[in-house]
Amino acid sequence: MFMGQTCMPARRRSCMMRRSLWTTLVLALSVAAYGLGPVQPAQAASGDCTHFVDTEAASDGNGSAVSPWKGLIGRVDGVPPGSVICVRGDTAGSGRMANLGSVVLKTAGTANAPITLQPYPGEKVIWYSSTANQLIKFDGAAYWIVDGFTLENGNRGWRAVQFEDGAHHNILRNNEIRNGHVDGVAVVRGSPDNVIANNLIHHFANPDTSQDAHCIVVQPDADRTQILSNTIHDCSGDGIQLINADPITIAEYPDGVQIIGNVIYRGTLSRAENALDIKAARNLQVLRNTLSGYFDDAAVVVHYGSQSVLFDSNRVFDSARGFSIQPKLDKKISNLTLRNNLIYNLSDYAIQIAGVESGVVIHNTIFAAQQQSIAFVGKGLVGGVIANNLVVASGQAYVSSQAPFSQVAIGTNGWFNTSVVSRLSAASDLVSSGSPGFLNAAAGDFRLSPGSPARNFGADYGVRTDFEGEPRPVGCRPDLGADETRKLCLTAVPHDASIRLTWNHPGDGSLASYSLTYTSNGQGADAQEGASPLNAIPANVQSLTLTGLTNYVFYTFSLTARDGSHATLYVSPSVAAMPTDRFVFIPLVQRNP
Description:
593 residues, mainly beta
């Protein structure tokens, strides 16, 4: 998140207000990227436009509504903070072709008063240039918002958009950026705190097959770049690349980059590399992206010496390989976490790790990875956790005999119709030739059905949300895999001639009532509250004490959640407890220092 300006004491209040407004704006973009809603266009209303541009005006004016500028070049440098520059377009069809040229943004808005460049509200503008250079260059500019254009790069040998020379706190959003022979959007070395959000970026292909064209590229020291909710396809290089640009030190790797909520697919170009190519990163977060179609390569590559990299709740499918973790130049990747990811329909492997220090592979669902599911080769893995993964109908889970593999906690993984070598197996694993009970794997729905053996099987490693952002676990042990199924968990605490029962609300809006069944196998008295079953317990009740029970007799309980038609929604696991009038009190002894 943007931190805004540094505040001097005498200016603290106004500076905090500016910081608050800009942070609120970026927070809104980030929340949308987490899947809580789309990034909505935020263009100013027509009455908010302060400067006007009309490329078809008869003459160049003063920038007013009645006397607009004919272009942007030579005009944008003089606008003050808070300006809203509106470019005339068309309301019909795809929009007006506007030769706005190659515009360089140098001035600065403020956190409280950014400068906005956008089409006139309700109109469409196709921005192109008949000259060389980028369509838009943020040249040291700060607090600009470029919103809502079609940026037609015309298959030129220049990037469409570039952030450079320390450009910071700018937002590029709601644009279509298309058709180039080099990179689409570049964040150049030393340009931090910029946001690329809700854009459609496509068809950047270098005609020289020895050269790449990436749709987005982030260079060293471009710290805290946020890439949120974009749709990216048809890039002859990578969808997004965090470039290494050797020789650089790890301290120069971009720090705190966020890649959240994007949809990246290969498209129809004759060549492409990866959806994500992470050559250099520190403290990287890659969350809730959908990556697909890389049938001739890996959807995700992490290499060189990246550090503290988190992949959480991504959907990776229909590719040759899922995650390829391959350090280079005698470096090792450290503090890597793969968590809550859905990885499926792969012709080769789902995850291959070839040199990581401290790696966590936890709560991932892997389905139909034909050659290998999880593989450790090369420099292997030293230190970490491999647990609570659900691997189904996939190739062998494998550790190369030459790969270092030590100090790794392994357990409670589910292997369904998947072989696993002894170095990756544990007595606590669930190994089965049956079905894990996916709701509809063919349609990409890997939620677990109520009878799935993978439910309530995992161990608690502190993972508190699942693939959908819902709580994990829901009252019981966590499920295996990426998705935590809503469930009903019952707890019984014995007392003298009574047992207190508590349970969680399963979070289902169709819940209407509960039904409690209990039995003592004929050994004890029924509860004063009634014989089993106790029906029509209201949906807002989450505890019940049964009294009048027989001490020293085990009672077994089960709770059923029902909808308004009395159909079963959830059934809790059975629990047993024995009422007793004998309790042991253990004194607390404190030793004085």
